[in-house]
Amino acid sequence: MIDVPRLEFRHIGKTFPGVRALADVGFRVRAGSVHGLLGENGAGKSTMMKILGGEYIPDEGEVAIDGQPMNFRKAADAIDAGVAVIHQELQYVPELSVMENLLLGRLPTRFGLVDRRKALAWTRQRLDALGVDLDPRAKLKQLSIGQRQMVEIVKAILRDATILALDEPTSSLSHRETDVLFRLVRDLRAQGKAMIYISHRLDEIFELCDAATIFRDGRKVADFDTLEGVTRDTLVERMVGRDIGDIWGYKPREHGDIRLSVKGVSGRAVPQPVSFDVKAGEIVGFFGLVGAGRSEIMRVIYGADRRLTGDVAVDGKPVKASHIRDAIRHGLVLCPEDRKEDGIIGVRSVAENINISARRNHLTAGLFVNDAVEAKTADGFIERLRIRTPHRRQEIRLLSGGNQQKAVLSRWLAEKDLRVLIVDEPTRGIDVGAKNEIYNVLYELAGRGVAVVMISSELPEVLGVSDRVIAMCRGRIVAQFARGEANETNVLAAALPEGASATPTPAE
Amino acid sequence: MTESNAAAIGATRDTPATRRRALLWHVVDDYSLILIFVALFAVLSASVQYFFSWDNMVGLLLSVSQIGMVSCTMMFCLASRDFDLSVGSIVAFAGVFCAIVANATGSVTIGIAASLAAGAFVGFVNGAVIAKLKINALITTLATMEIVRGLAFISSHGQAVGVTNEAFFALGSASVLGLPVPVWVTLACFAVFGVLLNKTIYGRNTLAIGGNPDASRLAGVAVDRVRIAIFLIQGVVAALAGIILASRMTSGQPNAGEGFELNVISACVLGGVSLMGGRASISGVIVGVLIMGTVQNAMSLMNIDAFYQYLVRGTILLIAVLVDQLKNRRQAR
């Protein structure tokens, strides 16, 4: 019925110094539809979204709304045209409440003072209308990452945007939050909004999207007007440009003796004692809702947060409580959940990020950093893990998420006596190809006898990669499944709190 | 867009010409400060009488020797994303304390040792409060700046404390191979701290902490220990600067080194040390110190009123920070 699409990208080109980010890319988004945008990290999706949001000005081509060419020169132009782009990097004020964030810049006033009662009533009403369960008075910093994301989305909706782009909205949402989001998106579609939906989770694309476009290396490689009859494999193949086969690539391994033993460990955020073992060569997947206490207990085991009770031992040797360096000396290491905050040191080079810990083992005269060895180590990992970087001296913040993750992994692979590797959400926000590469690293380590603990909120990943699955709920281990026994239904059922409709506990 | 495809796409598009241009920019970026200094130096040598003479060069170096020494440790402090305002007060107190102890014991050595120990103690307190009690560095060192300045005035009764033992004056005035001792000490500091920053775990960890303290801790860096060490060493070097200054002035003066901390921080920032932490280079700091000294020296030679020197120093600092910002913005794209 509509010949003129609500939103059209026409021959967009964008070049950054030395990088052709987009080349002659165009696609159309109909009103009342959800349009999936797929591609590996670095394929150009985010650049396209920044052009849509007025943050970048394209070198070639134009964005058209209802057939009218738009010339966004700044973000405000796009907002005025009814465009809302919700980025992966959220933009909110952590010290302010949900209400204040939603009403930022237009709080109702009374005699020049903020009319809190009016603002509160308004916010409550809007949140209820959208079916979003949030306390308007909670400060953003008190909310889980998923809840913060929800606030962002609500903010865009409240601006009456007619075109909405969501860049990886579910990467840190719990199942329940994802359900709420999906319902919202469907409501908005019914209201005739045009939506772009970026996600690495293909299930979501199939569940939510009416049409899809695939980017690769800054070019459009495929357009699907409908996703009916399109298979998952087709999408993956077009994204990656090669057939990667079974994305898990799991092969059974021999397991040895108990490597990591955790007995009665508790911390401030996980007050109930937790116990479990991991054998040499075993990959144990930890599944649970956001806030189930998985990351928290791992941080206590590693020594990043204070251990209040319990014992941690590697190969029978006790690891000192709350002492990261002792854990590292025992070969027990952690790749943290929040790569940017806790993993990488952004302004330092890839080589520095890789060598920061292991360098203590190869000092010259016991004092001086051995640059030659470190360069070799860094280049070795860059090649082995296929870290895409121009050179080892590149600041790591300029790399894509997947490549940053590989560098953080390399930091621990460089430890000469690695025994236990804990990885927290190792593939969050990472494209399919890089995921596959990271799984292979885990398999290789396990094959060498390393005990691997993997936390993930993606159930298929946990099931696909782990030898054993442990489900956590509200700070407790509630169930364990051997690889053969675990399936989506029983693991998810175990991880859900009593009375499946109950809200997940908020993250500490 | 992320960098991951820079290699993939860039490779097909990079012509030799664009690559050469990029490389040239890189060189200009890296050495812009040195180029500016060389240009400044050349212009002054050609236009200002007596500027390019051996005596004036030695005088210039001597005039920046105190700032030079402490800039080395301030570089570490800023690189770890911290701040230290107490160095000026430590300079004053160290001079006074050294003079008092030397007079009381009759031994210059004991005076110097006691003074250095006092500097170390103040630095340790700074570091421990900041690292362990998690109190903001600006506030902590503002407090110790006041306290230590107070101690300098109290212990000296507000008067300059003359040193009776003449051996003490050699430290500030003796010459070795044509250069005064303070200049040698400063050169030694540049060498030692340059090596510490670039070639030791201590230096690399300092930069890592400045880049991201949480990630550094999780990577096994002893963050608290490094931060305390940074402040402790800074206390010792500031005390050393204070002792040498007292020796040059033949007395410990409680009002010495006022505004010194800001000059030192200015020199570091001018030298490209990032206040956001994680970026620092010894060559930058050296050039920063030299630019500050050169401008001051030239203005004195040109008989420009000392009051204007504040104006010029401030302006140079502002320009340096702006240039740095622009550079960062381009790198961040």
Key phrases:
heterodimer; A: about 500 residues; alpha/beta; Rossmann fold; 3 domains; six-stranded mixed sheet; 17 helices; 22 strands; disordered C terminus; B: about 325 residues; mainly alpha; two-stranded antiparallel ribbon; 15 helices; 4 strands; disordered N terminus
Structural overview:
The complex is a heterodimer of chains A (508) and B (333). By secondary structure, chain A is an alpha/beta fold. Chain A folds into 3 domains: 234 residues, P-loop containing nucleotide triphosphate hydrolases (Rossmann fold, 3-Layer(aba) Sandwich); 156 residues, P-loop containing nucleotide triphosphate hydrolases (Rossmann fold, 3-Layer(aba) Sandwich); 78 residues, no CATH class. Chain A contains 17 helices and 22 strands. In chain A, strands 6-9-10-3-11-12 form a 6-stranded mixed beta sheet, sandwiched between helices. The N and C termini of chain A lie far apart (50 Å). Chain B has 333 residues and is mostly helical. Chain B has a domain of 193 residues. Helix content of chain B is 77%, strand content 2%. A two-stranded antiparallel sheet of chain B has the order 1-4. A two-stranded antiparallel sheet of chain B has the order 2-3. In chain B, strand 2 and strand 3 form a beta hairpin. Chain B is globular. The N and C termini of chain B lie close together (9 Å). The N terminus of chain B is likely disordered. The chains are: A alpha/beta (508), B mainly alpha (333). Chains A and B meet through strand 2, helix 10, helix 11 and helix 14 of A and helix 1, helix 9, helix 10 and helix 11 of B.
